[in-house]
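Issue 218. Parser rejects a valid record. Input:
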Amino acid sequence: MRTPLSTTLGLEFPLFAFSHCRDVVAAVSRAGGLGVLGAVYFTPEELETELRWIDDHVDGKPYGVDVVMPASISPSVTEVSSKDSARTSMEETLQSYIPSRHREFVADILDKYEVPALPPDADHSHQLLGWTDATARPQVEVALEHPIALLASALGPLPTDIVELAHRNGVRTAGLASSAHHARKQVESGVDIIVAQGTEAGGHTGEISTMVLIPEVVDAVGDTPVLAAGGIGNGRQMAAAMALGAQGAWTGSIWLTVAEADTDPRVVPKLLAASSRDTVRSRALTGKPARQLRTEWTDAWEGSDSPGPLPMPLQYMLVSEAHRRISRAGRTELMGMPVGQIVGAMNTVRPVREVVYQLIEEYAAAVDRLNAITEA
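Output the parser choked on:
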């Protein structure tokens, strides 16, 4: 089962798997797909450790790295150096843009649920990490020092100089797009692959459904290969994406409940029990619309007394310590995570290899059914 793109990348299957967990990334690549490590939550030093581990456990198979380099943030910090001292200064400056009303709102939620403060010896930093162009560039530098096959941007087109740098290192690039307009912007920046992501997807996503978006993007970008993302969790959906013109499937949510995943064990039961209606597209996490599990935390941000979320990266800076406090306190009613509407089909915990092979078997069966109809 190959497409021109999967053949070019040396894959057995045109299946791409985004995950923040290195074990999942390596397992998908070993099974014949391409695992892609989400780098946004890692410092450059931590990312180096993760990629070194993947290099040792991927059996020489290709894998990728995904960064976040938003085209616009507020206030702009794109001119700030990415050196550690400058990053610290940038974080301090950005903290001053967070209104007291928002800090009080977060404090009120935590008080309502009796969430205690972090102990004095805990890490109190919010870790801006890779939510800006300036902080993502060091991650790119680390990634390109490893034998990655793909560098992807999860939010905003990769800057032209980053695309050129990746190409000089023999690495192909990909950009996520939620509309034909965004896809064309990605192509203009020089990326090699467009990931057309429908609104069903987990994480940052637009408003157009996958079934509508894929053919629009395929028609908009000409010869540039397109991967389909958003609501793909079985082989029938994968076959539908290919029928719409995609050269592969980009998946994410389904890997949250595999045996190898490092998903918080207190959240896993919530994912397994959730229906496809139990997600919400909210700015509560990062300041940009991101589909996530609906919780009492997301409900609070949609309430009448909410001051409304702040722009990226201020929202994440505002709430990151609150999430650590919630996790430490075990207040599961407030605990969620980015996940797509496919969560309604994520009902069991299985090994990565089993999930991959079932996807491919279901894909083959779907194609056989279509061929039988055509022949008839």
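Fixed in the parser; the record now loads. DSSP finds 14 helices and eleven strands in the chain.
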